[in-house]
Write a structure and sequence with these properties.
Oligomer: homohexamer
Strand order of the largest sheet of chain A: 2-1-3-4
Largest interface: A-B, 62 and 62 residues
Largest sheet of chain A: 4 strands, parallel
Helix content of chain A: 25-40%
Strand content of chain A: 5-15%
Structural class of chain A: alpha/beta
Number of helices of chain A: 9
Number of strands of chain A: 5
Distance between the termini of chain A: 29 Å
């Protein structure tokens, strides 16, 4: 995007944003978490994932990105020092407020980019669905999450992927190599079936059979996964991270391109 | 269950429930919706689905069921007369209150049975996760939904299944035949890709590729699906409904049996 | 009502409801509770009362009924297993959401039928009054409760009537005979004056002198009424239940007839 | 009460209150409203009623009174200038906060004195019941209201009493004669049956038959009672006010005396 | 103000207020607290301060005053008997409701007069700012507080002034002499630097250097200021109170006069 | 701080934080805003201020910093594109959640560093005061703001400083030079007295006389300050920014050093 000095809204003046809005109306809002990611991953891993995806897709697609939200919905990690979790209703409130403000002055297509695989989804869905139904019928609101966007590339991983797994470690390793303690990668994984039933959704980036959800809390998690990692991360690598990242960026850019030309019914409000 | 006169808690006296709790601690809470299901399906379809699953599994497994909640989170159907939707935060509050009361006098394993494929999941996840983390560490809370439980049987359907689709119509047709207007089944389906992008999750009971969610509201839905149905229901039949139902009941009973013998860490709080 | 296949909204399709709304605009919303009613009454007693009143009045008057809400505001019963109580604010929220949705597509006269004598009134009054003042001036909202509607028939009872008393037991006995444990009726009653002062409102369906309310909680109630019943129910009978029921249904039908012809100022908004 | 310089808590120092709590534990909390009371009554009428009752009963019984809350729940009067109404949920919150603080340092018997006949009851009941159940089992909470306390004296009035009626005007006339515009008393009354159905509760201080509540809003009320009064106040007099007031004060003192000796189960928490 | 019988809204009829609004649109809303003010000051001190300021300025300027709110935001005083504190969110809700009602029928310039130096400011700012931004752009809302209004007269005091200090004691002594226990004045003051750091804001009515706020709670305060007073009040006198009071009244009247002629942009909404 | 690889918590693993907590218990939480700062300042200016202060003080003092919150309470800027404001209650909720999580695993001294001069104070005070009173008596919570911390250095500025003024522009210019559009500095300033009365607080970093607050909204602000700046920024310079920054960092480090040795009563809970 030649026109703007930065894709990051916080680095621009309001006049820069006003300029952008004369011809464009797309913006991304990255939402992460600050939660433990095992001995090898940084507490900000999910936030870095959202930031990296939004930033690189924005550079390619020429759209703006808001400042990131570094805090997500992570109650089950609260017994590991450093985890900072918003209550679900707080995250709903933040997402609603951010999107309302963006919509107020002319953003019409707002893409929430979640870096926190799955776990923020309840809050973000609540916020986005409610806003579009009751307050912002004239705004198209989308929600992106690696757990759903990366299905086509997940085959590159070698291990079952759950929390602090091979691909999410690889992702940050590729983009922010100094943040991964590669000496702390692990080949252990937590067998979840005895804990959460044979109906557990065991591989967040893979296939699963019939599933039933059992909720666990942070004290229980500290018990069954004492070092914080659920997954074998020993096969993680920056190279895998690069493939995984570039795949998602490409998909996200495809989506933005589709959105730019969109003339369908959603958000015509 | 010889001992009790009914699996339905509302038909019993408090002394009956006290008796039950002397030896058992499992209960199911069925949650549905009152929302349009096209010209052929009754407004209560999702509630009937939850009631039927809970009732038949309870009879087989010998556990109690609370009265159903007939109202779910259905904002996108509000432009069809008869739809009654709770706000997401209201549904969270109801689910929390119900589970708190059950836990108070000794239910230790509480299974929320959602009949409303997917759409209630944000609220129910919010309620269950938050309760188990912050208030009820000593209670195991599970969440069942046909969208996740019926993966192993979904292959019997012939059409892409979205709202008011082949299997959910079949389900109610099997259990409550007088509630299906079989003369109003349709072979139309709404092509969602032009509306919701190529990244749409098109088959709620089937495979999907990389997906990104775009939220739509009730006015838009009335526009793109004016009769309320999204899906080809012409291949629906009570026979398919029976297979679908019995598969899920069997899985749910398997889960309850597993739960009964459970000695794992969750809910030891 | 020849035209409709059922007075229950949940059994109809949205097109059926749309048809109804072309010529009618009245609907009833039954609200009960799931709370202990002594050794003889089912936990769902209040819900059954609301359902029976709404259903029979609807059949006679030819109006629609929404699915019932099985949960009410019953904190003082929480120490009896099986009681499921919503917080007052949750009940307010549910009632508001239900009425908003009904109003949205054209119901203009909405009758909340409370089966839970008195105790739900704070929440339902809060919801109805607030909605009509601030959101739905063009909708007439009414609230029916046996405690106020049955004054003219209360003389048929022989005992002081408080919780789990002669008439409410009789009511369900008449309509749902299998739900009453007639072998568990009691001739005991709890003398409330020493507990709640001489200013207690002792007979919910009878006269009272100057009253002052003292609030009691579930632990205290378990102490002073250990089997859950406050009242002598030994004179209950299906015959009394029939008179009581038919009286209220007749009054409710009279009210609906009056409402149908109403041209007064309320709800002209 | 020789010991204290004032029955009004706000006039005392904290050390005075600490002294009081060494031997006593009863306090009254007066709640009124600021709402129109027709051309003859002051906007603060309900607050003056609560203040007068609490003050005179406190002087006689030797107990403390908190500062009054001048604002109640009066949405239906909002179209008359000068009315200031709290939302129901705000009034609940205020009442809870006040009672919590009183309980914190040792008040064990807290009497809420409502001067706003009936209309504040939903909020005050919600606050008191919820506090005693969930937070303050060791505090006895009572609720006094002229509509229920004055039944035994209501026979002295000559007219049907509804808003701005004979006895409530008389009450303030007796205690605060300069606040009544006696030149503006009216012999008109609003016939409520055509407006609110034959099931209306027409006489707030008298008998009523079978009733059903229809909620009205402030715009409607401005239409059917344009000067704000519902009732014939022409027979009001300071003499009637004195009888009415003294009767209620006597009853309230009786209640406080009963409470002082109370050893029953409530509030033993 | 010749025209009106009282500056206190609660003493007037709604017709009086309607008259006032034909030519005027200014009103004051006094907000105080009920919190301990040491051995010499009454619990209602802040409320009396707000009442006195509003009343005397209203008499001089000829404007109306609403009934006072006797309860403020005083959590740090809760361990002293008699303190009654609203939660911050409750105070926000009350202030919003009061201002909304005033605005509804034509008050266009609403002055909140806070008597509770500083401590209510968070809640009152939240309420006023939010209302003017989101709901009442056509109403000018102002906030007055002695801590900011009395800078020009603070030099008359001789001691460092913090809670229960020289000038606030003097203020009430001047206006309500019977409410001050002059035998209990103290020459002690609490040295806050060792407790709250050298960056403490030590003199609420005086100069301060670079400050950082450390929050303290009621248990800690009971520890470091066991008699409730923070400040040397031995130099308090009715004469100082008169100067302090008259200065603020004069400033407030100047402000009202300015407001009356105001044609600027705020509140033109 | 030799021991840790970063002062930023999000860059560390949970084990790093656990190590830190073995010997330390201080953490800073930077809170900014995303709001217009005139033609020369970036939208993230307040966030950059908070980040810079926290980061440099943390490096010097050897303490940890949480990820920043980029969104504050900025309703009056909402009519300038790019402004993203949380509702006050949302900011309260976020601050409470963050501080609760930090406290949960052992941070005992939590310093909120506000970069948004004054405007976030209502929310942050509400959160911190309420937490310390009701939930976290054993945690010391402090609040830092340039408006109060920089009094001793404010004399270096040459102009009256209000929004987008000389020193805040200088601050970011010093730390993040590429973010200031120095070609857009202005010598204009908005004379606030005619708009907000002679009682306006005109210089946020300077002396003021007797003040009364009038709240303005975003539409009004767009009118009286159309380019977003209130202040003459023409004298801004990186050199002034350096002095201003270093002064505050020095003070903050002094405070942290004091806190480290603190043995006083606050937070002993």
């Amino acid at each position: 995007m030649a026109r703007l000095r930065s894709i990051w809204l916080q680095e621009l003046t309001w006049e820069d944003v006003a300029d952008y809005l004369r011809t464009d109306d797309i913006v991304m809002f990255p939402v992460g978490s600050t939660e433990q990611h095992g001995p090898a991953g940084p507490l900000g891993l999910d936030s870095y994932a959202a930031i990296a995806l939004a930033e690189d897709a924005a550079e390619k697609a020429g759209v703006l990105v808001t400042p990131p939200l570094w805090f997500g919905d992570s109650p089950h990690h609260l017994d590991f020092p450093g985890t900072i979790s918003l209550r679900t209703e707080t995250l709903v409130a933040v997402a609603k407020d951010v999107i309302r403000c963006l919509a107020r002055k002319g953003f019409k297509k707002i893409i929430t980019v979640n870096g926190h695989k799955g776990t923020n989804i309840a809050a973000l869905t609540t916020a986005c669905r409610s806003l579009h139904q009751y307050e912002l019928p004239a705004v198209l609101i989308a929600l992106v999450d690696p757990m759903y966007l990366a299905k086509g590339i997940a085959h590159i991983k070698e291990a079952v992927e759950h929390h602090a797994g091979e691909l999410e470690i690889s992702h940050v390793w590729h983009k922010y190599p100094h943040l991964i303690r590669s000496d702390k990668l692990t080949s252990e994984h937590v067998g979840l079936e005895p804990i959460l039933s044979p109906f557990v959704h065991r591989d967040l980036l893979g296939k699963s059979g019939d599933t039933i959800e059992i909720f666990w809390n942070s004290a229980e998690q500290k018990g069954f996964a004492p070092d914080g990692s659920f997954s074998n991360s020993s096969k993680a690598s920056p190279e895998k991270g690069q493939k995984y990242h570039e795949y998602m960026v490409e998909k996200l850019v495809e989506f933005i391109d589709w959105l730019r030309k969109y003339e369908g019914p959603i958000g015509r409000g």
